[in-house]
């Protein structure tokens, strides 16, 4: 490889020039190896923050970060492997629903997931609400389970995209997290390393999302879709509303119960609709449907006839979990205490700060403030009122599920999340766009 200097690359990006593939490759490899100091990598990230990146640059950065560590070889899995990624939100449990739904259509879902840091656990934490559920397995077992059941979820390899982990930690402390090309490359490098053939992205926008404005969410969606397609991964994105939590429950076991109810056909309207929409797009990318309309018919069919629910039981049991709570929700971990959070004024719910609901859930033990924190699987919040609903003073807005004695701070946080209007309020749109 040509001898390069980091100062030249920083200067070129600072001045708005497009970096070559060779320059980006050299940067990622040299930074991963410790040959570039953090202060120069920080200067590079800041230059990208202000100047942006072309689609070609972002794709080159993605492929290099994906290649910096382990990459899953899923070629031994039959069929088109379709993955889904959400940019994160409060009460977002769609992965728990989509896996069985799509696998029931005979489309392989080979999912790598992590543990959560924030308001609730990640998909792995939620699945561990099933006693005995295991996600640590070698690649051979993972491939075997996907071929057998069309569905498996494993914990992320410790050496998946190490260059991205290193660069993200630096961005986190240098004010350069909110860079669309860097976010897009970070997300897509993990998807590329995880080996999927096709990817459906759920890009959230609103008060509980990383991208609060619709305009920025669209920019991120286009950037990720462009990267995926340019790297020969069929990729599309749905932009969905996160101005309020998804569904009625926030918290690990509570969200799993709601996911099971959705697979049973009894889920809340918003969670059902988003899950079916995402699954329909996965059916198209997985080659089982020609368009979303046909995909929706297939998805609704396996939902209504119980095939998807049976797939959930098979999936849980195959990974060592006890599937009994799927038929008897009383067997899920349950909190010792429930406390009502009541409205202090009357009116229609006009706004919800979803992030505050998530913060309250973390205060109750449903999430982690640091990676070493223990999760309380039973803790969480049940929402009784959402945007557009009417609540009189004294009515229950939410129910806290907790083990701890003092829930006052969490209750105050939940009340602060609600705003009211004397006039009737229209329920917000759930899905803004598909890209």
Strand order of the largest sheet: 1-4-5-13
Based on CA atoms alone, the radius of gyration comes out at: 22 Å
Assign the CATH superfamily of the largest domain: Nucleoside phosphorylase/phosphoribosyltransferase catalytic domain
Number of helices: 17
The number of distinct β-strands equals 13
Task: Sketch the major β-sheet.
Answer: 4 strands, mixed
In helices, the fraction of residues equals 40-55%
Q: Quick one: CATH class of the largest domain?
A: Alpha Beta
Low-confidence stretches: none
CATH-scheme architecture of the largest domain: 3-Layer(aba) Sandwich
Subunit structure: Homodimer.
Keywords: Glycosyltransferase, Transferase
Domain Pyrimidine nucleoside phosphorylase C-terminal: 348-421
Enzyme class: transferase
Compose a concise summary of this entry.
The protein has 435 residues and is an alpha/beta fold.
Q: Your description of this structure?
A:
With 435 residues, the protein is α/β, with parallel strands linked by helices. It folds into three domains: 47 residues, Up-down Bundle (Transferase, Pyrimidine Nucleoside Phosphorylase, Chain A, domain 3), CATH 1.20.970; 246 residues, Nucleoside phosphorylase/phosphoribosyltransferase catalytic domain (Pyrimidine Nucleoside Phosphorylase, Chain A, domain 2, 3-Layer(aba) Sandwich); 89 residues, Aldehyde Oxidoreductase, domain 3 (Alpha-Beta Complex), CATH 3.90.1170. It has a four-stranded mixed beta sheet with strand order 1-4-5-13, with helices on both faces. One of its GO terms (biological process) is pyrimidine nucleoside metabolic process. GO terms for molecular function: 1,4-alpha-oligoglucan phosphorylase activity; thymidine phosphorylase activity.
């Amino acid at each position: 490889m040509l001898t390069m200097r980091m100062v030249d690359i920083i200067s070129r990006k600072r001045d708005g020039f497009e970096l070559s593939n060779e320059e980006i490759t050299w940067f990622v490899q040299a930074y991963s190896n410790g040959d570039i100091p953090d202060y120069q990598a920080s200067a590079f990230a800041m230059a990208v923050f202000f100047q942006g990146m072309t689609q070609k640059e972002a794709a080159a950065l993605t492929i290099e970060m994906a290649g910096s560590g382990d990459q899953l070889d899923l070629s031994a899995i039959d069929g088109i492997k379709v993955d889904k990624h959400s940019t994160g939100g409060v009460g977002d449990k769609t992965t728990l629903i989509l896996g069985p739904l799509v696998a029931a259509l005979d489309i392989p879902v080979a999912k790598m997931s992590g543990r959560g840091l924030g308001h609730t656990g990640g998909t792995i934490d939620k699945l561990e609400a099933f006693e005995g559920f295991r996600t640590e397995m070698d690649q051979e077992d993972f491939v075997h389970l996907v071929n057998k059941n069309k569905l498996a979820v494993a914990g992320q390899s410790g050496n998946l995209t190490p260059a991205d982990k290193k660069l993200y930690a630096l961005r986190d402390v240098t004010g350069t997290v909110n860079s669309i090309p860097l976010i897009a490359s970070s997300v897509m490098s993990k998807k590329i390393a995880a080996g999927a053939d096709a990817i459906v992205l759920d890009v959230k926008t609103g008060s509980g999302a990383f991208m609060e404005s619709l305009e920025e969410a669209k920019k991120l969606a286009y950037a990720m879709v462009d990267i995926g397609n340019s790297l020969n991964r069929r990729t599309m994105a749905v932009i969905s509303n996160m101005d309020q939590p998804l569904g009625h429950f926030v918290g690990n076991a509570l969200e799993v119960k709601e996911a099971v109810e959705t697979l049973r056909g009894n889920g809340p309207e918003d969670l059902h609709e988003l899950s079916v929409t995402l699954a329909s797009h996965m059916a198209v990318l997985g080659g089982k449907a020609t368009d979303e309309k046909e995909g929706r018919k297939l998805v609704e069919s396996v939902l209504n006839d119980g095939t998807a629910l049976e797939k959930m039981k098979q999936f849980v049991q195959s990974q060592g979990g006890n599937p009994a709570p799927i038929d008897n929700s009383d067997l899920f971990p349950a909190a010792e205490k429930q406390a009502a959070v009541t409205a202090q004024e009357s009116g229609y719910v006009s706004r919800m700060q979803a992030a505050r609901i998530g913060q309250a859930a973390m205060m109750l033990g449903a999430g982690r403030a640091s990676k070493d924190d223990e999760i309380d699987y039973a803790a969480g919040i049940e929402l009784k009122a959402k945007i557009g609903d009417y609540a009189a003073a004294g009515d229950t807005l939410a129910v806290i599920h907790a083990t701890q004695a003092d829930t006052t701070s969490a209750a105050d946080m939940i009340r602060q999340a609600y705003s009211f209007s004397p006039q009737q309020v229209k329920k917000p749109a759930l899905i803004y766009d598909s890209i």
